[in-house]
Amino acid sequence: MVFRRIFLSAFGRPWYDKEQPLPRRFFAFCAGAVIAIISGAALGLAFPLTDIFPLAWIAFVPLLVMQRGISVKRMWLFAFLAGMSFWLVLAYWMHVFHVMALFTAVPALALYFSLPFLFLSVWQRISRDRFPWLDPLLFSLFWAGVEYFRSTGFLGYSWGLAGYSQTAFLPILQIADIAGVWGVSFLVVFANAVVAYLFRQDTRRRKRILLCCLGALLGFSLLYGALRLSEKPSGAEYKVHLIQAFVDPETDWARDRYAETMQKITDLTLQAGKGGGDLIIWPETLSHPPGMYYWKYLRMAPEDNSDRRIAEWFVGMPDRAGRAVLLTAPHRDRVAVTNVTGSPGLEMQSYNAAFLVTPGTNVLDSYYKINLVPFGEWFPYKKEFPFVAKILRDTVASDFTPGTRYTVFRERDTAFSVVICFEDIFGGLCRQFVLGGAEFLINTTNDYWSRSVQSQEQHAAMAILRAIENRRYMVRAANTGVTCVIDAWGRMQARLPNHTVGILDGNISLMRGYGQSVYTRHGDFLGIAGAYLGGLALVLGLLFNLYKGLQTGFRAAWKTYANEE
User: Fold this and answer.
1) Are residues 195 and 313 in the same domain?
2) SS3 labels along 196-220
3) Engineering a disulfide at 40: which of 25, 85, 151, 328 sits with its beta carbon 3.0 to 4.6 angstroms away?
4) Within a domain: 334
């Protein structure tokens, strides 16, 4: 009680009363801003590398307590400051894209962070705070909805979701096979909101009811997690060899070094082939030249042609290793298109691709990356904004076309799918492959670009959720980063150190007999529900403000008319 009184006296409504002296109001504003910044930073520390995951369960409490005593605009500002602090702690490494990323991407992401607080403030204003016991539930749904909305579309970015802060707390993560990462985010945020509600001046009965609801959710989640973690894998095993080559794509494929790089990759692949097993997996774009394109169009070139030599090296790798190899490289191909006049024609298009090739140069299938990095790998509005496209062409190395097919590779009696680079951060994408019959998932990535162990560990942590959501093993082959094997319960079975050259052998259970999880079958229902609820709150808030404005204007006009009479 003493702590509650001190907290409320510092950050409650009286602290921001307009009738208070200006110095006290200024100090109150500064104190609120500092609290917001500390709150956002605390949430950022819950993620890898620091992994202080308990902080996520209380990080929002100061912000939500302050919300009871300040205006909508001021709360939105404080929440934005918290978002800025959060993203600077979580993703300071964004500057490697461009120094301007910290001044563009971080504020945009902070704006997303602030939206649930805005929606809650709008709800409180519309309802005139008559249903305060609904606030924890609504805020948690708003949060899950904004996270889902942020993760969709051309600019979709699923990094930094609250649920990812719990990757070191496996029992609580197991509910992801029901509601996805959104379920974990909901639970973490709901705990924050209930604790904040305890600081309200409300009846003890309502507080006990909310505490019981939180206890029931936590109890169910922990019990469910314990039961799931006690399970054992079932089905046949499949052995893979994951190559971590630690190649710098900017320098190691230069004309004066590419032969040395090819030999390095060859040695690793042949060494992996001597270990038996079923499949050798290359990381993303391990071959920087488009080897399959060269094979398709240039294999009849003169023998001394360097592109022909790369083609034969690339496609002949499974023969030399004596094993099927998942080869990765950029790819180009001529695609039938219809031009603006309606006439058919051929257009050369580029892809970020993976190819399954078996000994005997038998190309079984290919996958073209579907979810490309916005601005980094593609820009869909080249015709509408040609000046932006020109800037990107001058500064960005890739201009890929997104793939359209959810490829399920079938090698002998095994089925698997590949997600390339940051595709493994999108649960909705990964579940499509499992729905198509994939018995395990492969993430091929090249995290060399970030030069940040923190970024690489955060990326790997998100793959843990994809494994749990679909109850399928996930293996990651990283050029550098985290090359690892993750089981269907999110446990990292084996891994290689970052920034080293090596081969990781992994045994994968095909999980036959487990069927599809609730999340795999029904998808992002919780995130979608929250997104619709947030949209409804925004619309109602706009209508409410319009109504109040018209009401005020009508009253003023009527008063003027009455005085004239």
Assistant:
1) no
2) HHCCCCCCHHHHHHHHHHHHHHHHH
3) 85
4) yes
Helix axes 427-435, 453-470, angle to 10 degrees: 40
Chain center to CA of 8: 36
Which two three-digit tokens encode residue 472?
A: 């399928």
CATH of the domain at 419: 3.60.110.10
pLDDT in tens, 243-283: 999 998 878 888 889 889 999 999 999 999 998 889 999 99
340 and 224 both lie in a single domain: no
Alpha-carbon dihedral angle through residues 462, 468, 471, 472, given to the nearest 10 degrees: 30
Rounded to an integer, what distance in angstroms lies between the CA atom of residue 517 and that of residue 499? 35
The answer on 443 and 538 residing in a single domain is: no
Q: Helix or strand or coil: residue 473?
A: strand
Whether the predicted pLDDT of 93 surpasses 90 = no
pLDDT of residue 342: 66
Residue 560 belongs to what H/E stretch?
helix 525-564
**Residue 138 near residue 120, CB atoms below 8 Å:** yes
d(CA 393, CA 535): 36
Q: Is residue 520 assigned to a domain?
A: no
Residue 125 domain flag: yes
Cα 450 to Cα 49: distance, rounded to the nearest angstrom: 15
Average pLDDT over residues 461-469: 97
Task: Answer yes or no: are the C-beta atoms of 117 and 86 closer than 8 Å.
Answer: no
Tell me the β-bridge partners of 334.
Answer: 348
The total number of structural domains in the chain stands at: 2
Per residue in 467-499, pLDDT (tens digit) is 999 999 999 999 988 999 999 999 999 999 999
Distance (Å) of CA 187 to CA 169, 184, 468: 13, 5, 16
Between these two residues, 360 and 16, which has the higher pLDDT value? 360
pLDDT score recorded for residue 87: 95
> In the numeric block, which tokens belong to residue 164?
């990812």
Q: Are 291 and 366 in contact (CB under 8 A)?
A: no
Cβ-Cβ contacts under 8 Å for 164 (sequence gap 6 or more): 47, 181, 458, 461, 462, 465
Contact (CB, 8 A) for 44 and 85: yes
Nearest by Cα to 220 from 177, 171, 167: 171
Omega cis (within 30) before 90: no
Distance CA 273, CA 34 (A): 57
- Angle of helix 101-126 relative to helix 72-90, nearest 10 degrees, comes to 140
492, 464 in Cβ contact below 8 A? yes
Query: Mind listing the pLDDT tens digit for each residue in 421-431?
Result: 999 999 999 99
Nearest of 448, 483, 479 to residue 463 by alpha carbon: 483
> Structure pTM?
0.89
Mean pLDDT of 220-227: 97
66 with 36, same domain: the answer is yes
For 72, how many CA atoms within 13 A lie in the half-sphere containing its CB?
Answer: 15
| Mean of the per-residue pLDDT values of the chain | 87
Q: Are residues 124 and 254 in the same domain?
A: no
Domain span at 204:
2-231+528-550
- The amino acid present at 395, given as its one-letter code, is T
CB burial class (10 A; 0-12, 13-18, 19+) of residue 145? buried
Statement to judge: residues 244 and 223 lie in one domain:
no
